Amino acid sequence: MNKSINIQDTFLNQLRKENIPATVYLTNGFQIRGIIKAFDNFTIVIDSDGRQQMVYKHAISTFTPQRSVSLMQDNSSEE
């Protein structure tokens, strides 16, 4: 049972579950600082300054979390 790790989902899920503040850099140079609230295959929802924003992933260049994120999956605590 060799299950491949989806790094993108693992990374975003840790940001969401641990409420880690992150800066999202868009391809147009705009920056959004906030907390990831939800994500799917095409979008993320980020809470920034008390406002929710839905951003399409194709418009995102980089995520920079305020602290390091563990990429080790803990299967016992999946939600």
UniProtKB/TrEMBL annotation:
Keyword check for RNA-binding: yes
Record-level GO BP terms: regulation of DNA-templated transcription; regulation of RNA stability; regulation of translation, ncRNA-mediated
Classification via Pfam families: Hfq
Domain Sm: 9-69
One example GO MF annotation: RNA binding
GO CC annotations on file: cytosol
Keywords (A to Z) from UniProt: RNA-binding, Stress response
InterPro entries: Hfq, LSM_dom_sf, Sm
Subunit record text: Homohexamer.
HAMAP family to which the protein is assigned, alphabetical: Hfq
Name of the featured protein: RNA-binding protein Hfq
Organism of origin: Paenibacillus odorifer
